[in-house]
């Protein structure tokens, strides 16, 4: 299968591209630099610029673009960049795909469980509506733009990723230094639900959605067993053979990071991967302990 990947240099994309090539697929990476390689195509999503002719013959498109929501405090300018980075890339890809004489069979677009907002103890599935806040609003706009591919007759999958666990990036990488020193602990009261997925399963779910026609519309990419933040901290500390005795007060996180902390690490989302499971995907890591031991070589 010939596959175009946008956002190939990110945490998920960096693992996905070699996995797809290892499975025998031809992968074309979209890049912003002018000097593109043999397996690359230059584009400028901010300007809506992408040579659609270079996509002829492509059978699948995977869009993983989007500025990191956890990189810093959400100023007005940062919120605008977060939204714009998602909308511009998605709109550019959808427009290019819709104009092709031979359209791709499938369009996979990243989203996030941030779609559901802070939902407390409620169990969430793909049937649950959008929550309230900046992240739900961003995800809703993001997904609405991606659904333009569906209107063009392309099977469209909205991949709502949970917290992707990898030792070299994302939330886990930020937590590891303190936990390895024995200075880690829960965030806030620790009762908020964290829906997580190992990097291996994030990549596996994408490959599954590429080839399984039962995957369409929103698909939650999370492990079957969500945990509270307190359970996450205790499990990580146990795997590292360190204590988890230094909780970070919620008020301090709000003081330092404002809405970003409230809508990310302090928000509660107990998400179930109902559509992924119903379509027959077999998780490599269903339980947090096993996932962390695998990722950290323990």
Give a quick precis of the structure.
This protein is of the alpha/beta class. It has helices at residues 11-22, 76-98, 134-146, 148-151, 170-180, 199-211, 229-239, 250-257, 259-263, 274-278, 288-295, and strands at residues 2-6, 26-31, 40-44, 49-50, 60-63, 106-112, 123-124, 155-161, 163-165, 193-194, 196-198, 217-221, 227-228, 270-271. It has a single domain, classed as Rossmann fold (3-Layer(aba) Sandwich), CATH 3.40.50.
Describe what this molecule looks like in 3D:
The protein is α/β, with parallel strands linked by helices and 298 residues long. It has one domain (2-295): NAD(P)-binding Rossmann-like Domain (Rossmann fold). Helices cover 38% and strands 18% of the residues. It has eleven helices and 14 strands. The strands form four sheets. Strands 4-3-2-1-5-6-8-12 form an eight-stranded mixed beta sheet, sandwiched between helices. The protein has a two-stranded parallel sheet with strand order 7-14. Strand 1, helix 1 (11-22) and strand 2 form a beta-alpha-beta unit. Helix 1 crosses helix 6 (199-211) and helix 7 crosses helix 11. The longest helix is centred in the N-terminal third of the chain and has 23 residues, at 76-98. The mean pLDDT is 96.
């Amino acid at each position: 299968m010939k596959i175009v990947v946008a956002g190939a240099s990110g945490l998920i994309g960096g693992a996905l591209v070699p996995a797809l090539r290892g499975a025998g697929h031809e992968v074309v990476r979209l890049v912003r630099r002018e000097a593109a390689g043999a397996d690359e195509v230059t584009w400028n999503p901010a300007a809506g610029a992408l040579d659609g002719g270079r996509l002829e013959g492509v059978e699948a498109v995977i869009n993983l673009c989007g500025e990191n929501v956890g990189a810093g405090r959400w100023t007005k300018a940062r919120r605008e960049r977060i939204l714009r980075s998602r909308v511009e890339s998605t709109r550019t890809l959808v427009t290019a795909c819709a104009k092709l004489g031979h359209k791709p069979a499938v369009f996979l677009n990243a989203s996030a469980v941030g779609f559901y907002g802070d939902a407390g103890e409620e169990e969430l599935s793909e049937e649950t509506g959008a929550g309230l806040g900046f992240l739900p609003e961003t995800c809703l706009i993001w997904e609405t733009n991606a659904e333009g591919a569906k209107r063009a007759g392309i099977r469209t999958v909205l991949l709502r990723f949970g917290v992707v666990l990898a030792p070299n990036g994302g939330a886990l990488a930020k937590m590891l230094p303190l936990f390895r020193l024995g200075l880690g602990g829960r965030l806030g009261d620790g009762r908020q639900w964290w829906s997580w997925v190992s990097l291996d399963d994030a990549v596996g779910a994408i490959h599954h959605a590429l080839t399984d026609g039962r995957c369409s519309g929103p698909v939650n990419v999370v492990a079957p067993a969500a945990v509270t933040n307190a359970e996450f901290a205790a499990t990580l500390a146990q795997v590292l053979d360190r204590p988890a005795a230094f909780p970070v007060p919620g008020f301090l996180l709000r003081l330092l990071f404002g809405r970003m902390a409230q809508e990310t690490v302090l928000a509660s989302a107990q998400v179930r991967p109902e559509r992924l499971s119903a379509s027959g995907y077999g998780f490599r890591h269903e339980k947090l302990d096993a996932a962390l031991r695998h990722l950290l070589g323990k």
